[in-house]
Amino acid sequence: MNNSKQEKVSVGDWVRGFAKNGALIQGYMENIDPIDPLFKIRVVDSDDKDLIGFSLNMDDSLIEKVPASHTLTEPQIQYLIDVALETKDKEWFYELTKALQQYKQNYAHKNTPEFADFTMKR
To answer: What is the pLDDT of residues 70-104, one digit of tens each?
Structure first.
């Protein structure tokens, strides 16, 4: 891996791309190994539902950084709620649950994926 690959993404960045089976994935960067040319991505949403929750080792040519935003999709909020539960962070859990309820109220009647306004404070 050369330095230009490391400059593209950082641990914690949201990324999207294609898994080896061709499935579209979205997740966040878990690990960048300076020796290994693969990035470790935690999948939070995919058209292949079997990949959700797993970590995939992916080449940088198969992924792109998702532009920074203060908005989240429903699967991202649901995944972060799971993280809040695992870390026993009650305040964050309530904050995310409220954001999910707001998302569902605002976008339940639409068939297209939308984004919920939510500012990450972490």
So the answer is: 677 888 888 889 988 988 999 989 999 998 998 88
Residue 9 shares a structural domain with residue 59: yes
98 neighbors 116 (Cβ within 8 angstroms)? no
State how many domains the chain has.
2
Nearest 5°: the CA angle 110, 113, 118 is: 105
Parent domain of 37: 3-65
Is the C-alpha dihedral spanning 52, 47, 30, 96 positive or negative? negative
List pLDDT tens digits, range 29-69: 888 878 877 899 999 889 999 999 899 999 888 888 887 66
pLDDT confidence of residue 70: 63
Which of 76, 19, 81, 86 is closest to 50 using CA atoms? 19
**Angle subtended at Cα 2 by Cα 5 and Cα 42, rounded to the nearest 5 degrees:** 40
Q: Look at residue 8 and tell me whether its pLDDT is greater than 90.
A: no
Strand partners, 29: 41
**CA torsion angle for 39, 43, 45, 48 (degrees, to 10)?**
90
